[in-house]
Write a structure and sequence with these properties.
Layout lengths: L2 H14 L3 H11 L10 H8 L2 H9 L23 H10 L9 H14 L13 H16 L7 H14 L7 H12 L11 H4 L8 H18 L22 H9 L5 H14 L29 H22 L3
Helix pairs in contact: 1-2, 1-14, 2-3, 2-14, 5-7, 6-7, 8-9, 11-12, 12-14
Length: 329
């Protein structure tokens, strides 16, 4: 997979869809056009007035979130089921903290969860839940504003745990457990999952050896067992149009967070390229089924074939963009 191939498929979608939000995302996020580039301001203005941005603004609550942080309130019929889903959607469609006030307010909401001033309480009886959810909050804060000082302590805790767990170049459960007990004062043998996504938010702090060890352990487990409903890269369907196809991307993206992800994803990437249509685009198909909390779409109404093509192609381009960055030719 090369940058030239990525550019070809991105421009195929650019020509196919005139929707400003799609074109802005392609130029800004997929093709790395600088934020200040002269080609973006006009598109950005249209994007910020588009229905998908307006929808997120209308659904944002008074606290800056979209309901509970990660636990769905089943008494409420909400299009955006949780605040973590809402924030991830804002980031996915290409919003930054400099655009309107959605992510600025969302960060204020996250900081209130972190410092305990929010009316929403994250604390649970399960002793693992508190450090787990705190890391998830910091992961989103770091996605909005990298190297936020409010997350320094949490980041340092997980960097210490990771360095202990992978000290020998391979994962050691006992070392991980000892470090977590030391840091979080927990007692259970069940551990908080390694917060690799948060750790990689500050990649300059991670040695290549540590990242490779995490890839081979966490990425290897995802490749073998699947990160989401046993959807593993070596069990792909014969055809791309499959009602479960979108769910493979939870596994793909989990492995793809690491540099060198081609170790497990090379064949899956080749399969994806082969499955593109003659126009260089992908279509999820009429039977696609979204998992709960899904945020990767570019329309308010996803029932039209046009939207299936746009949403499917955009998600694949997001994956391929990161793959190219993490596996340079």
């Amino acid at each position: 997979m090369t940058k030239e191939q990525l550019h070809k498929h991105a421009m195929a979608l650019y020509d196919f869809c005139e929707y400003p939000a799609v074109r802005y995302k392609l130029l800004f996020s997929i093709l790395d056009t600088p934020y200040e580039d002269e080609s973006l301001p006009a598109l950005r203005e249209q994007f910020l007035k588009s229905d998908i941005v307006e929808e997120m603004s209308e659904l944002q609550d008074e606290y800056g979130g979209w309901g509970r942080f990660r636990s769905k309130d089943y008494s409420v019929r909400a299009k955006i089921p949780t605040s973590s889903t809402g924030i991830n959607r804002c980031l996915y469609i290409g919003l930054t903290i400099h655009d309107r006030d959605l992510l600025f307010l969302a960060k204020e909401y996250l900081l209130s969860l972190l410092d305990g001033t929010s009316p929403e309480v994250l604390s649970e009886k399960n002793e693992r839940a508190n450090p787990w959810q705190t890391a998830e909050v910091c992961n989103l804060i770091e996605a909005i504003t990298p190297h936020s000082p409010e997350c320094d302590e949490v980041y340092e805790q997980w960097l210490y745990i990771a360095n202990c767990a992978y000290a020998g170049g391979e994962y050691c459960y006992e070392a991980d457990m000892a470090a977590q007990h030391d840091v979080f004062l927990t007692r259970e043998k069940r551990l908080v999952p390694m917060q690799s996504e948060l750790l990689l938010k500050r990649r300059d702090r991670i040695t290549p050896e540590l990242e490779d060890a995490m890839l081979r352990h966490l990425g290897g487990e995802a490749s073998i067992r699947g990160h989401f409903w046993d959807k593993t890269p070596d069990r792909l369907p014969d055809e791309f149009q499959n009602r479960m196809m979108r769910r493979w991307f939870h596994t793909f993206n989990y492995i793809n967070q690491f540099r060198g992800s081609g170790l497990y994803l090379k064949d899956a990437v080749a399969w994806l390229i082969d499955q593109a249509g003659p126009d260089g685009l992908w279509d999820w198909g009429p039977q696609v089924n979204d998992p709960w909390g899904y945020f990767g779409y570019f329309s308010c109404n996803r029932h039209y074939k046009h939207n299936r093509v746009v949403d499917g192609t955009m998600e694949i381009l997001n994956f391929l963009k990161k793959y190219v960055d993490h596996n340079p030719c």
